[in-house]
């Protein structure tokens, strides 16, 4: 289908475009920007007056819950949530059931996702068999099946000799290892940030040094092996200081942060709100401000939704017993816009929205190694989101397509509403379509 998106403000951080220009799509790819290509005849026209036209969002952490956890969410529900939130490419961790540690499982997941004809799914393969931290998986075969990297999800490798060997092997082939920095022992069983609030509430704590000790170990192993590492969901000021120093040293490292941690702190637990039970836990205001600064100065490469849908049986429990996680696919765009609005108000700059979009489009695509995603250069795959940055919506269970309805932002009014999502030139979602 030939699609003409007209009258919109085109923001493409990868190509440094931020101006009012039309976008032309032919055969699933971007054919031209500004002026129609020769002989172009639109089969579909989208009027984007007053709206932003941007690359489809790239989410670096979205659990789709299949296979194995269909009672929490299904591919169908979460893929619908993705396109409703403007996400056209997403990376899913390997902690499914069974774990994504065999090529056949990865191929099955990709085929199921492709059959739904919605967003592009890019799996992470398990770094070790069963995520047990003992035996290395067949990284080369998993890459051939479609994995873009390798992860332990939320299960740290306790034996550093095993982690060293994993990194040596990955470095041989140039694979990237995705690790969430957390010590296997310090803070084990904790449910909230260690500090005065957790003490007052009687909650077991996870100290910041659980993150920093793990970072020291990872960096030493990187120096020894030369492996490339992506750090998932940083949470502390002290941790970011170490990352900043490691980048200055020249270590091949990138990192992301969950959108929740950009806006919330441990005080948002309030009176044991299980929706704010996250992993890593929400930390202090000082940590949150460091995260915001890290997004600005490039220490943090990308913002992700950390989408982890949970059902009522997991969340309608005392805080300490509730499962960690929250839905986030449909909130990622709005939370990025909220950060941009806060940045603009504090800094008085007019590039805030472009900066925020870069963290969820081009920069996220760069981290994941997705050359065709997160940008709208001529000839690239036409993954596009059209949204109204001023439209406000209230976060309610009924407003979410995800099967997971639990988020600490329930009841919040947020700016940014998707008008249309285009995946490979096809309109995958349109609000109020006639």
State the gist of this model.
With 434 residues, the protein is α/β, with parallel strands linked by helices. Helix content is 31%, strand content 22%. Strands 3-2-7-19-20-21 form a six-stranded mixed β-sheet, with helices on one face.
Descriptive account of the structure:
The protein is an alpha/beta fold. Helices cover 31% and strands 22% of the residues. A six-stranded mixed beta sheet has the order 3-2-7-19-20-21, covered by helices on one side. α6 runs parallel beside α7. The radius of gyration is 21 Å and the shape is globular. The mean pLDDT is 96.
Provide keyphrases for this structure.
globular; 31% helix; 434 residues; alpha/beta; 6-stranded parallel β-sheet; 6-stranded mixed β-sheet
**For the report, how would you describe the main beta sheet?**
6 strands, mixed
Q: How much helical structure, as a percent, in the residues? A: 25-40%
Low-confidence stretches are: none
Indicate the mean pLDDT.
Answer: 96
Structural class: alpha/beta
**Residue share in β-strands:** 15-25%
Task: Note the overall shape.
Answer: globular
Number of strands: 21
* Number of discrete helical segments: 13
What is the CA-atom radius of gyration, in angstroms?
21 Å
Strand arrangement in the largest pleated sheet: 3-2-7-19-20-21
N-to-C CA distance = 18 Å
Describe the SSE topology:
Layout lengths: L2 E4 L2 E4 L4 E4 L2 E4 L2 E5 L10 E4 L4 E4 L1 E3 L15 H10 L2 E6 L10 H14 L3 E4 L1 E2 L12 H7 L4 E2 L8 H14 L2 E4 L12 E2 L2 H6 L3 E2 L2 H17 L2 E4 L5 H13 L3 E6 H5 L21 H13 L4 E3 L7 H4 L16 H16 L4 H9 L1 H7 L15 E11 L18 E11 L2 E5 L4
Parallel strand pairs: 1-6, 2-7, 8-9, 9-10, 11-12, 12-13, 13-16, 14-15, 16-17, 17-18
Antiparallel strand pairs: 1-4, 2-3, 4-5, 7-19, 19-20, 20-21
């Amino acid at each position: 289908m030939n699609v003409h998106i007209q009258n919109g403000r085109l923001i493409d951080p990868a190509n440094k475009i931020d101006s009012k220009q039309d976008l032309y799509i032919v055969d699933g790819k971007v054919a031209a920007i500004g002026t129609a290509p020769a002989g172009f005849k639109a089969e579909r026209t989208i009027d984007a007056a007053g709206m932003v036209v941007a690359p489809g969002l790239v989410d670096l952490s979205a659990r789709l819950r299949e296979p194995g956890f269909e009672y929490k969410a299904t591919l169908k529900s979460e893929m619908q949530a993705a396109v409703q939130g403007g996400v056209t490419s997403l990376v899913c961790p390997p902690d499914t059931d069974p774990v994504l540690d065999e090529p056949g499982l990865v191929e099955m997941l990709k085929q199921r996702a492709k059959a739904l004809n919605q967003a592009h799914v890019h799996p992470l393969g398990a770094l070790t068999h069963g995520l047990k931290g003992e035996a290395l998986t067949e990284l080369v075969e998993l890459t051939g099946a479609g994995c873009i990297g390798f992860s332990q999800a939320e299960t740290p490798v306790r034996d550093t000799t095993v982690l060293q060997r994993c990194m040596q092997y990955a470095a041989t082939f140039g694979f990237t290892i995705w690790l969430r920095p957390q010590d296997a022992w310090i803070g084990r069983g904790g449910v909230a940030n260690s500090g005065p609030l957790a003490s007052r509430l009687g909650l077991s704590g996870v100290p910041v040094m659980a993150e920093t000790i793990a970072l020291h170990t990872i960096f030493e192993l990187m120096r020894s092996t030369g492996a490339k590492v992506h750090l998932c969901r940083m949470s502390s000021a002290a941790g970011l200081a170490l990352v900043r120093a490691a980048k200055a040293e020249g270590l091949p490292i990138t990192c992301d942060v969950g959108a929740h941690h950009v806006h919330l702190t441990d005080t948002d637990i309030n009176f044991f709100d299980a929706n704010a039970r996250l992993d890593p836990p929400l930390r202090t205001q000082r940590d949150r401000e460091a995260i915001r600064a890290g997004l600005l100065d490039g220490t943090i490469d990308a913002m992700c939704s950390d989408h982890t849908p949970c059902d009522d049986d997991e969340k309608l429990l005392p805080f300490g017993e509730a499962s960690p996680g929250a839905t986030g696919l449909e909130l990622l765009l709005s939370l990025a816009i909220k950060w941009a609005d806060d940045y603009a108000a504090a800094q008085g700059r007019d590039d805030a929205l472009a900066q925020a979009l870069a963290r969820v489009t081009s920069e996220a695509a760069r981290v994941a190694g997705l050359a065709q995603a997160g940008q709208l250069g001529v000839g690239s795959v036409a993954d596009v989101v059209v949204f109204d940055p001023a439209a406000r919506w209230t976060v309610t269970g009924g407003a979410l397509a995800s099967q997971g309805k639990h988020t600490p932002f329930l009841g919040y009014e947020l700016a940014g509403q998707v008008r249309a999502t285009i995946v490979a030139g096809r309109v995958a979602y349109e609000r109020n379509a006639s």
